[in-house]
Amino acid sequence: MLSNLTTTGRTLAVVGTAAALIAGTVSASTAAGGPGSGAAAPAASAHDVPRKAPVAQVRGSARIHFTLRPKDTIRFEVDAKAAPYSNPLPGLPTGMPTDARGTLRYSHYIPESGKTGWAVAEVDCLSTGGKTATVTAVIRKTNVERVGKRVGVSFQQGEDGAPSRLGFSWGVVNVDGGTDGHGEVGGTGTCQAPAPFAPATEGGYRVQHAEVPPLPRTGTRR
To answer: Residues near 93 by Cβ (< 8 Å), separated by ≥ 6?
Structure first.
């Protein structure tokens, strides 16, 4: 009989210990905000925050080889970044999704004359596709061109050992492009440029692609 009581006492003690452990676990879970605790869920981590959409841009500087003038020294430098819907126009108050800001610089040294022509232009348009970008810019300073003239240049980022490439609107195109607002033959519209036909021999360009952004909501502008 005593043996039975002793066994029963030990059994009750084990059950009591187990019950205490379970109660302690439940209490700890509740205090830590477990199910049924009524506590707020943990704050989202940085990995859960949506990333901002990339912004189209192209940067770099290079000397290029132009087949029609192989002995000349021709260089282009660009720093252009998209600024969608930032330049309202008559009849287009929102501006364009390809509106952009930045600077384009280029120079052309001709060994026969020993002279260098140069220009600095203000970027007004940028479009990208993969590793290629098309830029137009309006000339603000120059010793050879007309101030206010728009020029178009394309850039391709070099990859896998291939050089960057560049194309410029006055090099091989626009013969039948009509005239611009000043009556100049071969007027260039925004974001118009030929394919990047000339390889870089020094330096290069880096292109960051971004999809065309949606139209802004009525009454808003970036």
So the answer is: 221
